[in-house]
Amino acid sequence: MYSIGKIYKNEIVIQKSRFICLLIPINNPDIKDMLLEMKKQYKDATHYCYAFITKGKEKYSDDGEPSGTAGNPILNVLKKRQLEDVLAVVIRYFGGIKLGAGGLIRAYTKAVTDCLSISNLIIKEEMINLEIICSYDKVNLLFKVIDDIYIKSKQFRDHIELTVCMPFSQYTLIKKQLKDICLSVTEKRII
After folding, report:
1. Considering 104, 123, 142, which residue would you say is the last residue of a domain?
2. Which three-class secondary structure state does DSSP give residue 50?
3. Within 10 Å of residue 100's Cβ, how many Cβ atoms?
4. 119 and 34 share one domain
């Protein structure tokens, strides 16, 4: 999966219509305030079509364009590029020439694709939280296996309790070692 770390903007003109695409990183499916802000910023626009994918949810809107000609093509680009936690909004200023259903699909697809071409995509790696309990006599072995940057908290009791967050790919490399060293390792995947 991929995402973006900042807002990207690109504009194209097709048959006198302006299509302004904004790619916005999000982490919440409640995007009403963002859309209201765009409607204020681009108040004379004809359409504010969008799609987003975040936290396993996806949604799109044609905002008055013929059904299936704007929001769904935008969403399809996000899916094809394996994007997550991204809102894509394409703002259209109608130029007086009707594009037809096929033309609209191509225009909205091109608007998002062109904006993505100037964007820096970030690889979103699946993460895992670990609750680790280790005896004091094996703590040196444990710290040789776990990089200190992954440790989120330490508690010293009858044994050492660690909360660790690391990329899942890293965990798969050290999983057996941890199980051999520690009293217990509890896994919880996150993204």
Report:
1. 123
2. strand
3. 11
4. yes
